[in-house]
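Design request, tokens follow.
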């Protein structure tokens, strides 16, 4: 499926305390971006160390596929092509068994090197050379992910962050310009149970500049959930992000394309997301997202296991020089309507874009007492069922409340069970991060204990208004329909006091999830 969406009324952005009416892209220039979802050739025994020759033989198989795709992307006019995380070597290595896959990637900020034209400058760089020539021969910027080895000085000082074996091993993005020059190197900050890799001693904020679209920033997979480097990049004004990933889908809230779309919308940025295609590990879903459009692919059960090249012409997003940090300190929204900081004058200017700020409907509705707790992606959500054909409900987890007005489409499946859930707390399984989430979900079965469980399909279409009052300005909105179809929320707005509302109607397919996923970055370390 390759779908474009241009219907868009108002958007939500970190930078704002009130929404601006958006009529469409205003950029006067554009470029063609491509991402490749890669069905990789795996090493069947990743925990067994190989010789360098064997490791290279393995990676060349994946590089052969990259080469074909780079040529196809060039034919489609791509100026930048992104390959996924782990796409050359695969996963499940030990610190030792990945050794023969590693190359020492020089720091492009320290030296200028074109591996294609200067192959003898550094030994043991066959992969870098091949990628560089691929960029050069196809005349496009190329982003790939590969493992990097950086020797570090062993110290007797136990506080030294150099690992005891005297080497860093990093999960790394490399970027080559269209003549093959190595222009950027980024080491992944937020590892996801990758025993072969180290976390860099400092978060790396890495960007590169292109002649066709200006500046891009780099992140990898799980990084998208955290403040570093992702939010720092965005708040430095970087509006175009390159995102190799090997994302394990977690329905109903954290499906690949669902979060990619939500992130691009909320941050008002372009996201070039290339995922691995691996059915058994449940990795799939890639896309090219701008604040105005989404070109994406998400395979369904039973689809052939194969790669997929996506290409789209997208507008150049220039840096927005709004001073985002003035709006709120570290993104924390305090509900203090009497405060008058620099915030307010800015808020008022933006408020004037709206003739009349919408009334706060939700506050007068009493929370339902008919609630139950059910687990959604390992977190205990407080849920209330949507029992009627239409109605309104409110559910709270402590002082954090979610409100929903809904109307089921009368002709669509009425037997499906739906619930509104609220969660305020810290997610602690497979990563630790603080959340405030409002979500309408289709329950997987007919029993309330199935609410929050993984579900991919639904028949019930619903018009709704979902609203919550968040203690953060970082709220990621999504509407996911049956079989991983993304819908562009019809209307989104956010107010200075943290209230976010999302309105949607006339769905094209049944509703799987509608969510406002709030990240409380400021509480992550507590
Ligand atoms: C989002 O980006 C577009 C294009 O750069 C810009 O025109 C618009 O003002 C931005 N919207 C917000 C809410 O910052
Ligand atoms: C990697 O390890 C996980 C967990 O042990 C396993 O489920 C998965 O199949 C393995 N994948 C590969 C490609 O070896
Ligand atoms: C590469 O390795 C060869 C053989 O070990 C050595 O002679 C040469 O100096 C090395 N070149 C570089 C650039 O390190
Ligand atoms: C944003 O802040 C910087 C310093 O923090 C200042 O130099 C710049 O003028 C500000 N820009 C705007 C548009 O207010
Ligand atoms: C919804 O219906 C169930 C089953 O009849 C009932 O137990 C529950 O209290 C109802 N919930 C609400 C919010 O009306
Ligand atoms: C949210 O609900 C969970 C589960 O009932 C509960 O343990 C937690 O204390 C609640 N959070 C707040 C902020 O009340
Ligand atoms: C939804 O569909 C109805 C009936 O076709 C139409 O009247 C309404 O304008 C549509 N709403 C939106 C927001 O497109």
């Amino acid at each position: 499926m390759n779908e474009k969406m241009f219907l868009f009324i108002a958007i939500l952005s970190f930078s704002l305390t009130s929404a601006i009416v958006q009529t469409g892209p205003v950029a006067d220039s554009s470029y063609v971006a491509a991402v490749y979802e890669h069905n990789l050739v795996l090493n069947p025994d990743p925990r067994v160390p190989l010789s360098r020759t064997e490791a290279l033989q393995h990676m060349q198989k994946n590089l052969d596929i990259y080469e074909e795709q780079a040529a196809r992307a060039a034919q489609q006019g791509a100026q930048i092509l992104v390959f996924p995380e782990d796409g050359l070597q695969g996963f499940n290595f030990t610190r030792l068994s990945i050794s023969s896959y590693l190359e020492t990637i020089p720091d492009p900020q320290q030296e200028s090197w074109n591996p294609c034209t200067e192959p003898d400058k550094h030994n043991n760089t066959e992969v870098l050379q091949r990628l560089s020539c691929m960029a050069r021969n196809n005349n496009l910027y190329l982003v790939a992910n590969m493992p990097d080895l950086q020797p570090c000085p062993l110290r007797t000082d136990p506080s030294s962050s150099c690992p005891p074996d005297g080497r860093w091993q990093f999960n790394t993005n490399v970027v080559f310009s269209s003549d093959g020059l190595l222009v950027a190197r980024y080491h992944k900050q937020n590892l996801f149970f990758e025993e072969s890799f180290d976390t860099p001693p400092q978060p790396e904020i890495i960007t590169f500049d292109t002649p066709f679209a200006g500046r891009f920033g780099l992140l990898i997979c799980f990084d998208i959930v955290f403040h570093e480097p992702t939010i720092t990049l965005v708040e430095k004004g970087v509006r175009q992000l390159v995102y190799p990933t090997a994302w394990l889908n977690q329905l109903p809230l954290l499906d690949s394309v669902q979060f990619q779309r939500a992130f691009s919308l909320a941050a008002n940025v372009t996201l070039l997301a290339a995922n691995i295609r691996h059915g058994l590990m449940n990795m799939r879903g890639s896309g090219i997202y701008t604040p105005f459009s989404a070109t994406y692919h998400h395979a369904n059960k039973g689809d052939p296991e194969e790669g997929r090249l996506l290409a789209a012409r997208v507008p150049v997003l220039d840096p927005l020089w709004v001073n985002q940090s003035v709006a709120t300190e570290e993104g924390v929204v305090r509900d203090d309507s009497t405060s008058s900081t620099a915030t307010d004058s800015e808020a008022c200017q933006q408020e004037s874009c709206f003739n009349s700020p919408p009334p706060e409907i939700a506050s007068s509705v009493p929370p339902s007492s008919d609630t139950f707790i059910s687990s959604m992606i390992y977190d205990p959500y407080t849920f209330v069922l949507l029992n009627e054909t239409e109605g309104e409900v409110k559910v709270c987890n402590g002082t954090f409340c979610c409100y929903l007005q809904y109307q089921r489409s009368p002709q669509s499946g009425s037997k499906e069970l739906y619930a509104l859930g609220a969660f305020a707390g810290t997610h602690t399984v497979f990563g630790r991060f603080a959340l405030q989430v409002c979500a309408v979900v289709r329950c997987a079965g007919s029993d309330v204990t199935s609410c929050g469980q993984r579900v991919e399909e639904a028949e019930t279409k619903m018009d709704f208004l979902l609203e919550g009052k968040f203690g953060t300005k970082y709220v990621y909105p999504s509407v996911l329909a049956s079989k991983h179809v993304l819908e562009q929320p019809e209307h989104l707005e956010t107010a200075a006091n943290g209230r976010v509302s999302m309105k949607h109607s006339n769905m094209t397919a049944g509703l799987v999830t509608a969510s406002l996923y709030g990240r409380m970055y400021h509480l992550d370390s507590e």
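Comment from the thread starter after seeing the answer: thanks! The pocket of 2-acetamido-2-deoxy-beta-D-glucopyranose (ligand 3) is lined by residues 122-123 (CB under 6 Å).
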